[in-house]
């Protein structure tokens, strides 16, 4: 009888290694590195000269998100090898992963063609794609593979659990190329599901447990998976009918349906989309395998490492944490709490002796004081800290740099180019003179070109669009041929090489390092989330009967960076609009505030003037809330928690946590604050799905011990 997927024994915790209460949350979604919103329009021309003026101003509009709105096309279903060449471009069909040692020095690069780019001098023996993507059997099976809270899983147990899930998936009708949707929390069950899919050739597609039910239903309907794997709690948020749902650790799995087939694919990850729906990105097995070996080498991972498993499974960086670590024989350490407070993070880093931590930039900056103290007093002694997901200000990083001699890397990458494309090793002396940390140089097998508007490569120092070339490019967007063709293009000036047009503007400096300046479209980054404002605008417009809407980032708000939305016409019930959008969008995408305008400021081309709207957002002050007439004891308790974590009392019972300065880390701190008062810690999902104070107070009452 096959082993149940979740039948991994729960081993007792070793004495002296209790971590207390810990857990993480979001990781970088894989878009941009260092943002610089001030670089726009004519300012670009001043930097690049007349030669480069063509890449700025109105001509940028030709490749912006609006152009792609509503684009759909043939599905990627059934794509394999050369059959997918129309979307995927040149396939690297060989089944070996030899990575050559770099032969170009920086001096050679600066005196040769601009497309000759240095790569890290890392070399690997040839190994098959299947071996890389099924790494568990490569190592001593008695070694520890995963520590998940109080569960310790050896490589042998992990191998048996993976094989057991493979057998169960096959028994219910899942075969290679079929899509398996995983709605699971971070931890051992997610790792087993991922590895089982990769071992049998199925396509892994993770989703967030925090996604609103309506959004999750829409994404699953479009994905058309053969099976959904989840927990009993996760199943509560799934559509009641139409999908076969398998519960980990339980018997009686339903028969899989035929569903979509994507041959040769490893996984599908959703990113924010400009058409109103997230875009499903299909990444091939060959691209993933080459990335695994590249990261394992660049990070110097070994069997002695203890790697923090921090990212949510729905973020592609979770794969970058799991697969290279297991490929190298390292141990993965998954904290118990969904999102840890600063104290909880330090507890797990110290107690578990974490050697490698890959953290979102925004998260580390929020907890840097506590982390810096742990580094200075020796409680935590890592060898590698990797940061990424958004701009990395050098001055904010110095508190960490001054406290450790660990290697610190700034990582840049995109979902469409398999997670991470470049890294920059932070130099402590050099960083003292920098305001922003560079994106760095490419990983082996990847090249990034700086292109002008005509898609010709630009010389050192010239600003253009960053375009990624190499073995890590995704197959394209699932079921969207038009958007795939617009962003994954062949470039004649590069010998008809296939590249992904990132939309990021930047340049290569005299040392050969890439630097980021901004976006040529409207894409935003907020606390590690890659956000297409058009997705929010489409949802809001639908709720408002088709009114014109626009969303901008207010980066200098007193309570922290926030999204502000604008709409034309009469005022509406702001709370009702927030509630409606919370049913459609993740909490991070719901604007903190909506402002009514008599008319939307427009550019000559008919698009919203986002620069003017950003100025309006910065100048707009919401009226101070009036005191509540009724003081419910439960509301009073939660309000006290809000005051503690937000640091102000500018809210009432009808206020929205994420409108008044809240974000995921502060929500984690709120949950920790409430725990001793309630007798149990409220789940993060409860706080995210009930952001209004009065609603939150009622919801958390259910967790009282």
UniProtKB/TrEMBL annotation:
* The organism's place on the tree of life at top rank: Bacteria
The segment(s) forming the Carrier domain are 629-704
Q: Give the matching Pfam families.
A: AMP-binding, PP-binding
| Annotated keywords | Phosphopantetheine, Phosphoprotein
**One GO MF term:** phosphopantetheine binding
Which example biological process does GO assign this protein? amino acid activation for nonribosomal peptide biosynthetic process
Q: Where is the composition biased (Low complexity)?
A: 1-15
Cellular component (GO) terms are: cytoplasm
Tell me the segments the record calls region Disordered: 1-31, 64-96
Identification of the protein by name: Carrier domain-containing protein
Species whose genome carries this gene: Nocardia terpenica
* Upper lineage: Bacteria, Bacillati, Actinomycetota, Actinomycetes, Mycobacteriales
């Amino acid at each position: 009888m096959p082993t149940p997927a979740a039948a991994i024994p729960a081993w007792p915790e070793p004495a002296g290694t209790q971590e207390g209460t810990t857990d993480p949350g979001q990781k970088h979604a894989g878009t941009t590195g260092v943002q610089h919103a001030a670089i726009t329009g004519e300012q670009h021309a001043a930097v690049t000269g007349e030669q480069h003026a063509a890449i700025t101003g109105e001509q940028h509009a030709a490749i912006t998100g609006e152009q792609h709105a509503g684009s759909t096309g043939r599905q990627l279903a059934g794509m394999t090898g050369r059959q997918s060449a129309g979307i995927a471009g040149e396939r690297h069909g060989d089944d070996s992963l030899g990575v050559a040692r770099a032969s170009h020095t920086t001096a050679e690069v600066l005196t040769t063609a601009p497309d000759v780019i240095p790569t890290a001098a890392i070399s690997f023996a040839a190994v098959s794609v299947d071996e890389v993507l099924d790494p568990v059997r490569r190592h001593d099976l008695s070694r520890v593979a995963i520590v998940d809270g109080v569960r310790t899983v050896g490589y042998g147990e992990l191998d048996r659990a993976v094989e057991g899930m493979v057998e169960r998936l096959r028994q219910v009708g899942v075969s290679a190329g079929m899509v398996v949707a995983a709605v699971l929390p971070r931890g051992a069950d997610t790792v087993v599901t991922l590895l089982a899919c990769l071992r049998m050739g199925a396509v892994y597609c993770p989703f967030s447990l925090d996604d609103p039910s309506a959004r999750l239903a829409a994404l699953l309907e479009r994905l058309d998976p053969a099976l959904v794997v989840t927990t009993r709690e996760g199943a509560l948020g799934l559509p009641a009918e139409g999908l076969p749902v398998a519960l980990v650790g339980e018997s009686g799995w339903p028969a899989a349906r035929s569903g979509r087939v994507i041959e040769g694919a490893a996984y599908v990850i959703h990113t924010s989309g400009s058409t109103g729906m997230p875009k499903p990105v299909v990444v091939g097995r060959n691209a993933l395998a080459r990335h695994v070996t590249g990261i394992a080498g660049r990070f110097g991972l070994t069997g002695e490492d203890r790697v923090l498993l921090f990212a949510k499974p729905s973020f592609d960086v979770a794969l970058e944490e799991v697969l290279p670590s297991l490929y190298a024989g390292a141990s993965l350490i998954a904290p118990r709490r969904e999102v840890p407070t600063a104290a909880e993070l330090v507890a797990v880093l110290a107690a578990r002796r974490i050697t490698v931590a890959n953290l979102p930039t925004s998260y580390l900056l929020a907890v840097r004081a506590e982390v810096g103290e742990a580094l200075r007093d020796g409680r935590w002694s890592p060898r590698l800290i990797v940061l990424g997901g958004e701009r990395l200000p050098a001055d904010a990083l110095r508190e960490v740099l001054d406290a450790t001699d660990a290697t610190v890397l700034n990582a840049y990458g995109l979902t469409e180019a398999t997670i991470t494309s470049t890294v920059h090793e932070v130099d402590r002396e050099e960083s003292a003179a920098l305001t922003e940390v560079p994106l760095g140089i490419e990983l082996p097998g990847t090249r990034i070109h700086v292109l002008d508007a005509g898609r010709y490569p630009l010389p050192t120092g010239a600003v253009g669009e960053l375009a990624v070339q190499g073995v890590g490019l995704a197959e394209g967007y699932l079921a969207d041929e038009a958007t795939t063709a617009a962003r994954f293009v062949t470039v004649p000036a590069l010998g008809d090489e296939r590249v992904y047009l990132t939309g990021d503007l930047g340049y290569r400096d005299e040392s050969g390092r890439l630097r980021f300046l901004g976006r040529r479209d409207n894409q935003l980054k907020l606390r590690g989330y890659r956000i297409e404002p058009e997705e929010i605008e489409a949802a809001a417009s639908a709720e408002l009967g088709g009114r014109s809407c626009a969303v901008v980032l207010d980066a200098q708000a007193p309570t922290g960076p926030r999204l502000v939305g604008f709409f034309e016409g009469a005022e509406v019930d702001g709370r009702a609009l927030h509630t409606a959008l919370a049913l459609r969008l993740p909490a991070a995408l719901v604007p903190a505030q909506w402002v009514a305008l008599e008319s939307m400021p427009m550019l000559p081309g008919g698009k919203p003037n986002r620069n003017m709207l950003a100025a309006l957002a910065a100048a707009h002050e919401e009226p101070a809330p009036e005191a509540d007439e009724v003081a419910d004891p439960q509301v009073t308790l939660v309000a006290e928690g809000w005051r503690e974590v937000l640091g102000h009392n500018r809210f009432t019972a009808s206020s929205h946590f994420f409108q008044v300065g809240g974000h995921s880390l502060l929500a984690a701190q709120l949950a920790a604050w409430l725990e001793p008062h309630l007798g149990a810690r409220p789940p993060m999902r409860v706080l995210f799905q009930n952001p209004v104070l009065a609603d939150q107070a009622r919801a958390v009452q259910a967790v009282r011990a």
